[in-house]
Specification:
208 residues, alpha/beta, two-stranded antiparallel sheet, 12 strands
Length: 208
């Protein structure tokens, strides 16, 4: 499986607080922001570097600097927006795209309603974000839409995943690395991750 579980103690601690049913909307939103920044640190660990000559207060040196075009973060709406602020705190120069999908509650399939990304997305590393990888239908559809739009180097980042979602995602997009803080036990009959943390979008935006 092409999945990376980021089990840093700070991430796991914050995730546990998020799982609690009595965690407030304000606290949940803040924790998403903090975990997103920590996850972003890990998902960008292998970014290519080059060097440029700079002048320090002491002397001239060849110093490391990121190589190539800037990143593009793509939020899978709407819950993906909850992760953007934390990631942009770490990399404020990143471009941002959006893919709007909703899950049909009868079929559990993804339906697209919005798509807007940078025109040069084929030249950028794309990090698509959505808090939950449950059935993976929405994420699979979003990644396919990005590929159809020209994206060639894509990673996917989420807070939580279900084994069923990981399997489906890897089968659909074996070339896309998947990063998550945890893979939980299973999906229930309604397609929610168990034990999970509920509906991430509702808890981020206070619509639960």
């Amino acid at each position: 499986m092409n999945v990376h579980i980021i089990d840093h103690p700070l991430i796991q601690h914050k995730l546990t607080i998020m799982r609690r049913h009595d965690t407030s909307t304000r606290s949940f939103r803040q924790l998403v922001n903090e975990i997103a920044m920590l996850l972003c640190y890990e998902v960008t660990r292998d970014l290519p570097l080059t060097t440029e000559k700079i002048q320090t207060p002491m002397e001239e040196m060849d110093a490391p600097i990121l190589s190539g075009k800037k990143l593009c973060f793509v939020s899978i709406l709407r819950a993906g927006n909850g992760l953007l602020d934390g990631m942009l705190n770490l990399i404020p120069s990143a471009r941002v795209g959006h893919v709007g999908l909703y899950r049909d509650h009868d079929t559990l399939q993804a339906v697209e309603y919005y798509y807007k990304v940078p025109s040069d997305i084929n030249d950028r590393l794309v990090i698509a974000v959505d808090p939950m990888l449950a059935t993976a239908n929405s994420s699979i559809a979003a990644i396919q839409r990005l590929k159809d739009g020209g994206a060639e180097h894509i990673k996917f980042l989420c807070l939580l995943a279900a084994p069923e979602g990981v399997k489906a995602f890897n089968e659909a997009h074996p070339d896309v690395e998947l990063y998550t803080a945890a893979v939980d036990r299973e999906l229930n009959e309604q397609g929610y991750i168990m034990p999970g943390l509920g509906d991430a979008g509702d808890r981020i935006f206070g619509t639960k």
